[in-house]
Structure formats: structure tokens, C-alpha cells
Amino acid sequence: MHRLRNITIRRFAKRDLEAFAQAIRPQLTTATLNMAIITDTHDRTKLSRTFYGPNGYWHVQEQHWLASELPIDWRVHLGDMVDGSEPAVLTMWRLRNIINDYQADDIPFVIARGNHDDNDKYAERNRRFAGSFHPWVYHDLVWEKMAAQVGGPQVTRHGLSVFDHGHVRVITLNTSDVPVHWIGGRKNYDIKKTLAVTADQLQELADALQAAGERDVLIMAHAPAMTRPGKPGLRFNGQALHDLLRVFNLHASGTLDCGTNPDFGGQLQFDFSGNTGKIIAYVAGHWHVEEDFTVNGIHYSLLNNSALMGWQHGLTTRYNRRWRRRISTPSEYAGYVLSLDAANRRLRLFGYGAATPKRVFAY
């Protein structure tokens, strides 16, 4: 087990997570890649019984405690760590608290950038969009800390990260890859409303896929590239991202055109003719649901949000309303252990709280 700093978690959560750990521990081995994953904690200072609050940070600590009880290789957060709805100094404080928790012991971590993590939700309420983070904030607080880990992931200029575990390569994308220009004191894009990957990040992805060699590849991100009906899930380059994964599976080579948009367009080169691996799945959060679907042979697996979604709140998804989530009960949170068995080519998702207990997929 890993070294664990002194963490006190809530009694009901400890009882629930002890039972969860006991149930799944026999199914995890050191031969599998095991990751503790949460997404969309939407942490903020003010507590609400029907919506987000400081329990987002508590969920991170509870994930930390759980990871110490199981043979976990990586801790993962798939974005929207904070709600981004408070003054910048408060949101930055909450963000630092979460990052400090991930840095607190020897379990390596990887974090995907979420569309709420730049505090644009707060800035939307201000005439001059005041309170939105400059790009250096996320870079310094998150990406720099990820890259500095001993044995941690490689982190590219656009926030794509890569690590290998045996016959598996894990690539985490930045689906809020939005070039920032300040025009008359305002940002050119509202990042909360603009899910995107640039052509430059897609080139980084193509290079990381090519370097995977014989490895199969698991993709993770905050937002999925595609929807169940086969429509782009991103405002910019969702289809291009999906197509790049398709041609990787085909072991093809060529050029991908991302259009002429000055911020997101361009062409990229790819050559997967020497690769023998496949895309295992694309695992994401953002939609506040659980769902599994396949588009053109690419399996998309969506994870439920950890943040409390009160059943009376207008923004609560139908999926979460069915859970009738309540604070100080296991339904308050949702989290997962993802276990990849490369020898038997199985992806397993074990869920706790407002999550399906077990989902198993062949790849």
C-alpha cells in the first residue's frame, strides 16, 4: 500500500468506502492497471443542500483515502475540480487545496482540464468578464505540478499528458484547449462554453499515438469527442479528434485537415503504419451521466459527476434525479476504480456512491 498522510474522512463515507474496497480488492491485482477516478467535483466555498459546495474537496480526500486501501497505480481527476462561480481568489484557493491533496503522497496523479476550471462561470456575471483566470493559473497550479512528479506523466504544451503501464499507454486530453486573447479587457472565448482541441494538440496526440508502438491506448478527457448519435461533442475539432482515433485503429497514415479557423484550424500529419495497438476506450465526464456507446468502433464510456446534484435543482440531469442524491449519504458522491486487464483485454469500471457497481467491456 501507499504512504498516506493523516486524512480524516466522514464516518458514513469511511463505512461505505471500506465496504466498497472489501468487495473489489480480490478482483484487483498488481498485473492490472488500476486507477481511482473522480470527475466534476465542482468544489466551492459555500455549501448548498441542493447543489455544489465544499463537499467537492471532501470527495477528493475520500478518493485519496480509498486509494490507500487498494492497489491503486494512479489517482485521476477528469476535470471541473472547481465550480468556478466565486471570486478568483476563492476559486484559486479551492483549486490549490485540491492540488495539494493530490501531491500529498507517493501515488502519482493525472488531471484533465475542465471547462469550469478557469473561473469563467463567475466572470460571466460581470460586464468586463472580470475574475476569469489567465492561462498561467492552470499551467502553474496543475500542469506544472503534474509534470514535476517523479514517475509522473509527460505533459505537452497544450496540456495533453502521457504515461505508460506495461502494454497500455494512457493519454489524457485537454478539451478546453482554447487560445486566449484579451480584446478590450475581455477574453475572446468563454472557456466554460467552449469545448475544443486545437490542431496543434491533435498533432501532439498523433505523435503520442505513433510512439505507443505495440501498446493499446486508453484515452481520457473531461469531455467526450462525440455524442451517442455520432455528432461532435466539442465545439471545435470533436470530429477531427474522433477521426484521428479511427485512423489509429486502422493503422493508417496521411494528413488530417482541421479547417481554416485561425485559432483551431490547420493540418496535421500522422503515420500509424508501424503501430499494432488499438484504442481501448475514451473515458470522460462532463455530461453528469453514466453512459456507454460506440461510434465507428470507438467506445465512449462516460462517468457520473462526483458533485452533489440535488434532485430539485433545475440543472440536475435526469440520470442524477433518479438517484435522489442527498448530502451525508453515499449518494452524495460518485467515484470509480478503473481496472485494465491487458492480458485478458478487459476494461472494468467499479463504481461507488451514485454510480453503477460494475461495468465490464472487452477490447
Count of runs of 4 or more consecutive helical residues: 8
Order of helices and strands: HEHEHEHHEEEEEHEHEEEEEHEEE
The gross shape turns out to be: globular
Query: What proportion of the residues is helical, as a percent range?
Result: 25-40%
The termini sit apart by 29 Å
Any overview of this molecule?
- The chain is an alpha/beta fold and 363 residues long.
- It has eight helices and 17 strands.
- It has helices spanning 11-24, 55-69, 88-102, 120-123, 135-147, 199-210, 238-249, 318-323, and strands spanning 33-38, 74-77, 109-111, 154-155, 161-165, 168-172, 182-183, 186-187, 216-221, 253-257, 267-271, 279-284, 291-295, 298-302, 334-341, 346-353, 358-362.
- The strands form four sheets. The chain has a seven-stranded mixed sheet with strand order 4-5-6-9-12-14-13, with helices on both faces. A six-stranded mixed sheet has the order 3-2-1-15-16-17. It has a two-stranded antiparallel sheet with strand order 7-8.
- Strand 13 and strand 14 form a beta hairpin.
- It is globular and about 55 Å long.
Write the layout of secondary structure elements.
Elements: H1 11-24, E1 33-38, H2 55-69, E2 74-77, H3 88-102, E3 109-111, H4 120-123, H5 135-147, E4 154-155, E5 161-165, E6 168-172, E7 182-183, E8 186-187, H6 199-210, E9 216-221, H7 238-249, E10 253-257, E11 267-271, E12 279-284, E13 291-295, E14 298-302, H8 318-323, E15 334-341, E16 346-353, E17 358-362
Helix pairs in contact: 2-3, 3-5, 6-7
